[in-house]
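Acetylornithine transaminase, pasting as requested.
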Amino acid sequence: MSSSSTPPFEPMSSDKLEAFGVHHITKGLGRIKGGIMAKGEGSYVVYEDGQRLLDFTCGIGVTSLGHVNPHVSQAAADQCLKLVHSQCSISLHEPYIRLIERLLPIMPDPSLDSFFFWNSGSEAVEAAIKMARVFTGKQNIICMQGGYHGRTFGAMALTRSKTIYSQGFAPLMPGVFTTSFPYWHQSGFQPSTSTHTLTQQALYQLDLLFSQQTAPSDTAAIIIEPVLGEGGYVPAPPEFLHGLRERCDKHGIMLIVDEVQSGFGRTGNYFAIEESGVRPDILVIAKGLANGFPLSGVISRKEVTDKLKPGSMGGTYAGNAVSCAAAVAVADVFREENILANVQARSTELFSALNALKYDPNLRPHILDVRGRGLMVGVEFASPPPPSSPANMASRVAARCIEKGMLILTTSVYQVIRFIPPLNVSKADLAKGSQIFAEAVREVVKEG
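Structure tokens follow.
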């Protein structure tokens, strides 16, 4: 056989496929469960061995309208047969513009009227950094302790939720400074500390940062998640967000609001920042935007984006036609099926179930907090002490939930489990998931 000949190919049997994948896929990727996920159907996933699990992870908040939503998948399939790709530097395509048409009326502030669609949340964060530096003519970026903004190089420099994301990759992007987020853990306070006290302490630390580390005249932007994601599902108090807005206005600093995880209905509003009424200068979105198709967005004011030079933003796959068509369908489903009303109703039921556990006399020492917004809900367990608290409780409870038929994730350096069910989850499936979680918690506590 000549060296240019293509060798014969025979696909390996399915029983050998997982071992082959584990061997050849980079070890830098982690997984919470073995096996190969074969299909999804609404709030459930099915593995090749026939296991059917309730999915309260949604691919970390991505498949927010359930797996293989028929309206979204059909829109993507139809677009595939018309135009798959139209590179953004060559020509516009209709789904890109139709998506802007759908999103413009639901923006958290009418000033947000200039759109750039990219592929992932990390890329969108990096675009926001570029924009802020151009708009202000300044360099430095302030991020939040506990914040997560991605794992690409610039976004990684802003991520402060876990060291695993940047460990061994230094030197990181310069010009990044970290300030306190009003979360009692990070300020050395007790869980019962008022949000007002936490906010005042955090704003004091920010003002000190301006005086000691990065002068306002050198600071381009402050970036914040209105609900910490990887940092523990902690909502930012409206008072704190208003404090950031005031300081940004005073000093000519851009406020970047990262709603990659909290946006697009996850908290019961289209965007979590709506609760405070605070205006973002730049809004970053992704995850649930296209229900599993790779798409992110960076939205700002046309008066400032007009300062960008054509060609300074872009990317080969930016604003892909199929992904944009899927996102248009997502927006239509939100409106036609009244998704936000379902989020609000199911949220009430979820908080009721979780608070019943929190105040159960047998579990009360072990559950520190139930918090979040909408269907972005965290349960924080006591990290030993008290001595009676099981070690690694969050990961043990999550593993037990998987054994019982439900995928669920931990988050942060603390003992936190996060609920990210589909936004159209049914009342029955939410009750089923809550019951699985309750049984898992009781069993882990009993085992000690």
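Note for the archive: The chain has a mean pLDDT of 95.
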